[in-house]
Write the structure tokens for this entry.
Amino acid sequence: MLRSISHPHTFQERLAEQKARLEQRAHQLKPGPERDELLKKVGQIDTATHVNEWLNSGLQPPR
């Protein structure tokens, strides 16, 4: 019998989970290119989060 694993369902929840994992991994690394790349991805996730919030804010297009 397979056990079901609870995963975040919304886009926002998936972004938050991935951001937390990447930040944790980055903080375990010494400064260098690999850590820089992980922190860059964290920044991209922040941007995606803000864009998603903006798109879902109910703003109306200009008339």
Notes: Helices lie at 11-28, 33-55.
